[in-house]
Amino acid sequence: MSFDINVILDNWHYFAIGLGKTILICCISLPIGFALGALLALIRLRGGRVLNGIALAYIEIIRNIPFLVQVFLLFFALPFAGIRLSPMTAGIIALSSYAAAYFSEIVRGGIVSIAKGQGEAARALGLTYTQTFWKVLFPQIVGYVLPASTNLTITLIKESAALSIITVGELTYMAQDVIGRTYAPAEVFALLALLYWGLTAFLAALASRLETYLQPYRGLTRSASPQPARPQ
Amino acid sequence: MLNFSKTLAQFDQFLWGAGVTIVVSLLGALFGMVVGLALVFLRDAKWRPLRWLAHLYISFVRGTPLLVQIFLVYYAFPGLTGIDLAPFTAGVLALSLNSGAFASEIFRAGLSQIPHGQYEAADALGLPRFITWPKIILPQVFRVVLPPLVNEFTLLVKASTLLSVITVVDLTRTAQNIMNTTYRPVEAFLMAAAFYFVILFALSSLTRVLEKRNQEQRR
């Protein structure tokens, strides 16, 4: 079988729409996931025993059940509770709640990793609270949180491909749609892989730039791996 | 509301599905280790194009969704070569190729933790290479590498859910089949979720225990 580039050229707008939707889904889920994750982290650090237990249970459940099963559960369970959601909304909810569990561990790790003495030392040197936060604590938290968040973001992009199974019209779904009409799986899946690869590589490069920008004094801090991590 | 009677009647099928999930993941992990070892050697190869190839491979595997890799193996590969793969074979192949990239990172990290003095000491004692490697280096590497390898297996169990898409009858596919016969989707997927939780929680606890033991030994 030969490789027919025309399949791609004739259907480029389907891929463009799919890529746009994949990016849109991630752009919505990411901030929601981060906000919920930060909240969960605070509960785990400052909440009472009951709240802490609930937060921990949530995190363990999300981390020990495969993403696809979570997606199916959400997609099929909510209609039974009388809530009708479009696949897109269900997908965004699934991705956000998944991201929240992992973000909470990242944020918690970032806060815990800074020794208490850092804040006390800054105060002893006469820095104000604002100065202490922005000049001393923040750069260190960023040094921990940013690389881990980059990896998680890339994981989310990759996991979002699974949403095609519940017919969310993102990149993978659109690619399958094109195959359904052209019967050219090799060409389409090759392009699909290249698009994801480009997207994740671009993000990794962007994040490593951002990291150098936000952390002018990085000596002992961890640097972002130039490569995306494994889906958790 | 929830009614598990019809779903529980199919308990055997869930057990079978769980078995398939574990077998597929185990095979994927084993062949993945072989691929990973090969990549470790390729990355240190004398000939530069081989090193680039290994880097490109690892970057590709880490930068694309597993679902797309599964599609490439199951749909695109037969289209290009004319070799048809059974879903199970394609699934194991996709998992192995994927896992290999991550296993190679684990092996490299493990090898890099062995101090050079260990090789020198073995040399000074006059030990030949075929004794130094199996008796001195590898046991130390194994201890360092074991917890991340168990973790990698945990991740493979989660990843294997995607094989349900190419009709491998694992735990996820079983839940889908039972949903179709009982018309009880929530119960079916809750059952699958419970099975997964038991397997994955046991595995992640094992990783934690192994990590802790390593830390205590190092003190």
Q: Could you explain how this protein is built, in words?
A:
Chain A: This is Amino acid ABC transporter permease. Chain B: This is Amino acid ABC transporter permease. Chain B: It comes from Taklimakanibacter albus. The complex is a heterodimer of chains A (232) and B (219). Chain A has 232 residues and is mostly helical. Chain A has one domain (12-214): Orthogonal Bundle (MetI-like fold), CATH 1.10.3720. Helices cover 77% and strands 0% of the residues of chain A. Chain A is built from nine helices and no strands. Chain A has helices at 6-10, 12-46, 49-63, 67-80, 87-113, 116-124, 129-159, 171-182, 185-214. Helix content of chain B is 83%, strand content 0%. Chain B contains nine helices and no strands. In chain B, helix 5 (87-112) packs across helix 7 and helix 7 (129-159) packs antiparallel against helix 9 (185-218). The model of chain B has no long low-confidence stretch (mean pLDDT 92).
Q: Would you kindly provide a brief summary of this structure?
A:
Chain B: This is Amino acid ABC transporter permease. The complex is a heterodimer of chains A (232) and B (219). With 232 residues, chain A is mostly helical.
Helix content of chain B: over 70%
C-alpha geometry of chain B: flat
Quote the distance from N terminus to C terminus of chain A: 37 Å
* Oligomeric organization of the protein chains: heterodimer
CATH top level of one domain in chain B is Mainly Alpha
Strand content of chain A: under 5%
Number of helices of chain A: 9
Gyration radius from CA atoms of chain A, angstroms:
21 Å
Unreliable segments of 5+ consecutive residues of chain A: 220-228
The structural domain count of chain A equals 1
Structural class by helix and strand composition of chain B: mainly alpha
- Summed over residues and divided by their number, the pLDDT of chain A gives a mean of 88
Shape of chain A: flat
* Helix fraction bin of chain A: over 70%
Strand content of chain B: under 5%
User: How many individual β-strands of chain B?
Assistant: 0
**What is the number of beta strands of chain A?**
0
Largest interface: A-B, 45 and 43 residues
| Class based on secondary structure composition and strand pairing of chain A | mainly alpha
CATH superfamily of chain A: MetI-like
The Rg value of chain B, from CA coordinates, equals 21 Å
Protein name (chain B): Amino acid ABC transporter permease
Organism (chain A): Taklimakanibacter albus
Protein name (chain A): Amino acid ABC transporter permease
